[in-house]
Design goal:
15 helices, 474 residues, Growth Hormone, Chain: A, mainly alpha, single chain, two-stranded antiparallel ribbon, 66% helix
Amino acid sequence: MSASAPPTATGPRRGWMWLAAWPVVAVLALSNEPAPLYVLWQDRLGFSAAALTAVYATYIAGLLGTLTVAGTLSDRYGRKPVLLPGLLLGLLASALFASAHSVPVLLVARLLSGIAVGAFLSAGMAAVSDLADRTQKRTAGLIASSSMVGGAAVGPLLAGLLSELVPGPSVTVFLVQIGLLLAAFAVVVRMPLPPRAAPAAPGTARRLVRVPSAPRANRGQLLLGLGVFAPAIAATGFVLSLGPTLLADLLHTRSRILSGATIFVLFAAATGIQFAARRLRVRTDLLTGAALTTASMAVLVLAVRTTSVPALVASAVLAGLGQGLTQLGALTMLSSDVPAARLAEANAALTAGGYLLAGALPVAAGALSDATSLDTASAVFGATVAALVLTGATAVLRGGATGAGSSGGRTVRAAPGTQDGAPAVRGTRDRQDGLVRARRRRPAGTVHTAAPAARGEAGAATADAVRAGSEQPE
């Protein structure tokens, strides 16, 4: 079945591309909003560091589970059938956070917030691209990327400020969040999204729920991206889950504003670096991001040993820069070569793989902290992340048999006649960022997919469309 490009946006609809970013910001704010309040809940409910990281891991579990189905459902049935239930779950999670009186309630609230975020990581950012015309795909990708990371930055800062400045901190924060989500709900209801293609035959319904992956020809690229992106996002996960505890226990401050501001600068750095680095080559993105993540872990260990607030903030900034660059590079590497019909799934696979490690390592660090000390746990965590990201960087240097798209608007586009997972190349080899991969010929009788300009529709969650400029000559 053929896939068609979204209709060209004109007039007022161009403004909807920008307005569609608001629901992404609102829901992603919920993703990290609880972080500055963990110390408050810890004092009130009396749970350990291991329980704290388990609450964070529950969020990751909800997010990962949603990524296995939300993208496919969104591509098949439309964005709104995924986005509206996601917003309702976000509202329910906010209500539970506001009334939390036990760890199980926090676990359920964090799980529901993870499901809501997973829905918007797939369908929400795809909606931004859907509402862009063919000349706006680069802008749409940057808007989607910055709305995701920007929301993750604003949430904890808002929570930190409100929890210190207004009465009933854990209640007021989430009452404000409910207001933000209701405004987002109104935007989603009115979005003039293009219609979806007809649903697949009933016999294929079982494929709606599956572990996201990339086409066989692109799995090497997926693994190469995961090698640096997963450790980088694990580093930011540690700051999110145990950063407030570090501030309270080692640095002798219980300021929720400082805790929220630390997380804010982390994600603000991740947002800013994506704008600054949008013209760098993918290889540079990945290697520089790996170096920054390694430096972040070294500074984290220094911060714990010297009980230095500036060092902890510097570690958070470096972690944010590392995540921003590795995320940008990995997603661009996929968008340069994965067919439009599988791009959303490939991006979901990258996100899921990254968050899987981001959930596992902080939980292990929390358990080790309870068994030994936070100092020891931080050192072991930092060494583990540094070893993993340096291993990934070594794979990038060696290049292997995978391609990597160049940045700066010089991405190689998929040929119009491509099969799901098999780019059509007629006896040529594509060179991308110095890494060369022999691409498979398109088998006879394959079905044509969308035109290259429609690539951004496939749910490219970050700056994949940013680099979709001109074709790279061979």
